[in-house]
Design goal:
globular, 512 residues, single chain, 24 strands, 39% helix, alpha/beta, seven-stranded mixed β-sheet
Length: 512
C-alpha cells in the first residue's frame, strides 16, 4: 500500500483531547495531479472570444453611478439612460493582466491562512442558507444560535479551511446590523478566515475594521496581509447592482481580495446550453474583475464560477449533475487562462441527507477538485439547493472532504514499503494479517474515517444498527459539547465588542 504523508489520528479540533475523532490534521491541501480540461484549446479560445463579444455588443447594466464613471474612465461606452456599459476585449485583457496569480488570505491564526492560486485547494462551509435543519429539531428558519453552532463545528473539523458569507442567515437578528454579530462570532469562535457580507460598502468596511482589531493591526496594514475577503455575485443575466459594485470598489481600494461569481443557471439565468452558460459566466466575471483593476492596479481578485443547470420540468436548480461538474472543471480552465485564482462549489439539491445528497455533492466535488478550485464553496452542510444548512450533512460532507484531502496527498514510499520480505513469511494462498511487515505498519496502513462503519452486519447490529446519518447526529452533538474557543486576547475581544456596540448605535434602524 503506498504510504500517504501526514496521516495520523487527530482529535476533534486537532488541539483538544476532550472528544476523540479520527481526523487528519489541519493542513494546506495541494492537488498534485494534473487538472482536468474538458474544453479543447480551440473551445477555450471560442469561450474567451464570444464572452468579449457579449460585453462589447450587449454590455452589462451597472446600477452604481460611481462604477459607471470608473468604467468610463478606461474608455467604456456608457449609456446613462439604460445604465448599460460596453467594454471591448482589448481593454479587458489589459486590465485583467495586472491581477495577481495568487494571494494569501490571513486570519487571526497565521497557520490557518489560505494560499489562493496554483494547485492549492481549500474547502469551505455552507454559505447563505436561510434555513437550518437537524435530525433532532427538524427544519427551521436560520437563527443566531445555530449560526454560532456552525462556526464552532467548522472550527472543530480540520478539513474545513474557511467560512463563506454568513454560514447561514441569522434571521432573528436585525437585517441592518446582523453582519456585526456574525463577524463577532466568526472572530471569537474560530481562527479560520471568513468572507464578509458583500451588500454594500459599509458592511465590507465594518468587516475589515473588525478583522484589523482582532489581529491587532490597522486597516491600512491589511493591504500587506489581506484578510477582508468577500464574494460578490453578478445578478445574472448581465446586471451589476449598486451594493455589489460598491463592495468591490471599497475592498479593491484597500487591496483586499474579491471573488467575482456570476450566478448562472442554464435555462434560467443563461442560455440553456453549456457553451452559452460559460460564455455568459465568463463575460460577467471578466467585467467585474476588470473593475477591481480600474480601482487599484494589482488588487487581488478571484475568478468565480457557479454554473449549473435546472430541472426543466420544475425550474428548480440542480447540482452535482454532469453539466455542473463539467462547468466546475471548465471554470478552472478559464481562470488559468487569465492567470488568477479560482473559486467554485460542491453543491447538492437533495432535500434530505440521503444517497442523492452524497452522489450529487461528490460529483460536484470531483469537478471542483480536478478543476483546481482554490476555494471550494458550500463543500460542507449545503442542502436543498442552498435553502438549508444541515447539521448531519455537514458531518457527512466533512467525511468526504477528509477522504479527498487524504487522496490528494502525494504518494511516497521507500524500499521497505514494497514488502518483498513479507513473502518469506506468507506461503502461497496464505494471508498477510500477521506478517511482521503488516504488524509494523498496522496503525498507519490505511486512511481512517470518522463516520464510515465497516463492520459486518452482525457487529453493526450489536452496535445499535445506526445509519451514517444517525452517527452524524451523535458526532455533531459531541463536537459542540466539547468545543473549545481558540485563544484571542481579552483586550481585542473587548475592542471588538465596543466596535459592534458603537456601530449598532450609529446604524440604528437605517438600512445599509
Amino acid at each position: 500500500m503506498p504510504r500517504r504523508s501526514g496521516r495520523r489520528h487527530a482529535t476533534s479540533s486537532d488541539d483538544s483531547a476532550s472528544f476523540s475523532l479520527a481526523q487528519t490534521p489541519f493542513q494546506r491541501v495541494q492537488n498534485h495531479m494534473a487538472p482536468h480540461a474538458p474544453l479543447s484549446e480551440a473551445q477555450l479560445a471560442q469561450i474567451d472570444q464570444k464572452s468579449k463579444s457579449l460585453l462589447a455588443d450587449y454590455g452589462i447594466e451597472v446600477m452604481c453611478p460611481e462604477a459607471r464613471k470608473l468604467y468610463q474612465s478606461v474608455g467604456a461606452l456608457v449609456d446613462e439612460e439604460t445604465h448599460i456599459v460596453r467594454l471591448d476585449g482589448e481593454t479587458i485583457d489589459a486590465l485583467i493582466s495586472s491581477a495577481p496569480a495568487s494571494v494569501e488570505v490571513y486570519s487571526t491564526n497565521q497557520a490557518r491562512s489560505l494560499l489562493l492560486g496554483g494547485n492549492h485547494i481549500h474547502f469551505g462551509m455552507v454559505s447563505g442558507a436561510p434555513n437550518v435543519d437537524d435530525a433532532i429539531s427538524g427544519r427551521r428558519a436560520g437563527n443566531f444560535a445555530d449560526y454560532q453552532n456552525f462556526i464552532k463545528l467548522g472550527q472543530s473539523f480540520n478539513c474545513i479551511h474557511f467560512f463563506g458569507n454568513q454560514t447561514l442567515s441569522p434571521t432573528d437578528l436585525p437585517v441592518n446590523t446582523r453582519h456585526l454579530d456574525a463577524n463577532f462570532a466568526n472572530l471569537t469562535l474560530s481562527d479560520k478566515p471568513f468572507l464578509s457580507m458583500s451588500i454594500g460598502r459599509e458592511r465590507v468596511l465594518d468587516a475589515a475594521q473588525m478583522i484589523a482589531i482582532a489581529r491587532g493591526c490597522s486597516v491600512e496594514d491589511l493591504a500587506d496581509t489581506p484578510g477582508a475577503i468577500t464574494n460578490v455575485s453578478i445578478n445574472s443575466p448581465r446586471k451589476f447592482d449598486s451594493e455589489m459594485s460598491s463592495a468591490v470598489i471599497a475592498l479593491a481600494e484597500l487591496n483586499q481580495p474579491v471573488i467575482i461569481t456570476p450566478f448562472t443557471l442554464m435555462g434560467a439565468m443563461t442560455p440553456v446550453t453549456l457553451a452559452g452558460a460559460l460564455v455568459q459566466q465568463n463575460a460577467e466575471a471578466l467585467f467585474a474583475m476588470a473593475l477591481t483593476q480600474i480601482v487599484r492596479k494589482g488588487a487581488p481578485v478571484i475568478y468565480g464560477g457557479f454554473t449549473s443547470n435546472v430541472d426543466m420540468k420544475s425550474g428548480a436548480p440542480a447540482f452535482g449533475t454532469p453539466e455542473n461538474s463539467l462547468a466546475n472543471m471548465a471554470g478552472g480552465q478559464l481562470a488559468r487562462l487569465y492567470g488568477v485564482p479560482y473559486r467554485t462549489s460542491a453543491c447538492s439539491a437533495s432535500t434530505s441527507v440521503d444517497a442523492q445528497a452524497v452522489w450529487e455533492t461528490q460529483m460536484a466535488l470531483w469537478g471542483a477538485v480536478t478543476g483546481y478550485g482554490n476555494l471550494i464553496y458550500h463543500a460542507a452542510g449545503w442542502s436543498e439547493g442552498g435553502l438549508v444548512a444541515s447539521y448531519e450533512k455537514l458531518v457527512v460532507d466533512c467525511e468526504m472532504l477528509q477522504a479527498m484531502s487524504a487522496l490528494l496527498q502525494p504518494v511516497t514510499f521507500d524500499d521497505d514499503d514494497f514488502g518483498l520480505e513479507a513473502h518469506a513469511e506468507v506461503s502461497p494462498g496464505g494471508h498477510f494479517f500477521g506478517a511482521s511487515h503488516t504488524m509494523a505498519r498496522y496503525s498507519n496502513a490505511f486512511y481512517t474515517p470518522f463516520l464510515s462503519d465497516w463492520s459486518n452486519y452482525e457487529n453493526w447490529l450489536e452496535k445499535g444498527g445506526k445509519t451514517a446519518t444517525q452517527r452524524a447526529t451523535e458526532i455533531w452533538q459531541s463536537l459542540l459539547e466539547t468545543y473549545q474557543a481558540p485563544p484571542l486576547p481579552d483586550d481585542r475581544k473587548e475592542a471588538l465588542a465596543a466596535f459592534v456596540a458603537k456601530r449598532k448605535e450609529d446604524i440604528g434602524t437605517r438600512d445599509i
